[in-house]
Design brief:
Layout: E1 8-9, E2 13-18, E3 21-26, E4 29-32, E5 35-40, H1 44-59, E6 67-69, E7 88-92, E8 95-96, E9 99-106, H2 109-118, E10 120-121, E11 124-125, E12 135-141, E13 144-145, H3 158-168, H4 173-197, E14 200-211, E15 217-220, E16 229-233, H5 249-257, H6 267-285
Antiparallel strand pairs: 1-2, 2-3, 3-7, 4-5, 6-7, 8-14, 9-12, 9-13, 9-14, 10-11, 14-15, 14-16
Helix pairs in contact: 1-6, 3-4, 5-6
């Protein structure tokens, strides 16, 4: 049996080269504040992969995606081991664009901190009088550059995103920047409206796009998972304060409260996190996670 080793390892995912496709494996690692924690979160990788699959299927009318299969039987024998079952996705190879496409529908996190300072988020002027966790009149697009592991991504303006893309693709900067901005807003609007009908507020999220062999814009990476988005329960949503969430917030809160933890979490925090991920999956897809 041919064995494979990752060509790229991120904080959570491993990427394998499969000739004319890639196999992306979501591990059970968890990261917070740009550090990989010492715990593994069981089932997390599979939940993330199946959630991305759900959204890729749901949005293929808006923009094509890179997913080919999540069935390990379609992959080389090496991936037919139990540890790859459910958390692996075979994908088209794309040339990824060097921009993280962030869309915010609600004001929270770093956006809220910036708004309190000067009434703007990433240079975008917002109406006066917003309170924490308020819904914005319209979703805003706040792209950032992609940083190497260990560095922080840097927020940039739309104009700067045009420059970054123009450098990488001379003559195409404005076209690509405009297209990924439109896709980001359209994807967010469709998915946020759907999620709301299932009891989940998608406060913000990030998408990544690439080019296929014909130069078409295709969404890649992961999509609308609790790792790349802020999900809040609709029930009990109350502007004017922080909201409970379906993501790594438990982990972040615990780490902030325990600065000497050396990034090792107690079992109950890990368990609560998995339960939140599962709950989000089941609310959104209407299916039990198995």
């Amino acid at each position: 049996m041919e064995s494979f080793s990752p060509i790229k390892e991120g904080k959570v995912r491993e990427v394998y080269d499969n000739g004319n496709s890639l196999i992306i494996v979501a591990t059970d690692r968890i990261s917070a504040f740009d550090v990989i924690l010492k715990n593994k979160v069981t089932k997390k990788g599979a939940i993330l992969t199946q959630m991305s699959k759900f959204w890729f299927d749901f949005t293929k009318d808006i923009v094509p995606n890179h997913m080919m299969s999540t069935n390990v039987k379609d992959m080389p024998e090496f991936f037919q081991q139990e540890k790859f079952d459910g958390n692996s996705m075979m994908c088209k190879k794309l040339q990824m664009l060097p921009i993280e496409c962030i869309v915010r529908g609600y004001i929270t996190g770093s956006g809220w901190a910036s708004y309190q300072e000067n009434g703007t988020v990433c240079g975008i002027q917002l109406p006066e009088g917003l309170v924490e966790s308020d819904k914005l009149p319209e979703p805003i697009y706040t792209p950032s550059t992609k940083a190497e592991i260990g560095d922080h991504d840097e927020n940039i303006s739309f104009e700067q995103s045009v420059d970054v893309l123009e450098k990488a693709y001379p003559g195409k900067g404005l076209e690509y920047a405009t297209k990924i901005k439109e896709c980001t807003i359209n994807l967010y609007k469709k998915c946020a409206e759907y999620a709301l009908s299932k009891g989940i507020i998608i406060a913000d999220t990030k998408f990544e796009f690439g080019l296929d062999e014909n130069g078409n814009i295709v969404i890649g990476d992961e999509m609308l998972t609790p790792d790349s988005s802020r999900f809040w329960p609709l029930e009990g949503y109350k502007p004017g304060q922080g909201q409970p969430s379906f993501d790594k917030q438990f982990v972040r809160d615990w780490l902030k409260a325990n600065p000497d933890s050396d990034y090792l979490l107690p079992e109950e925090v890990v368990e609560k996190t998995v339960n939140k991920y599962e709950e989000a999956f089941e609310l959104l897809t209407g299916k039990k996670f198995n």
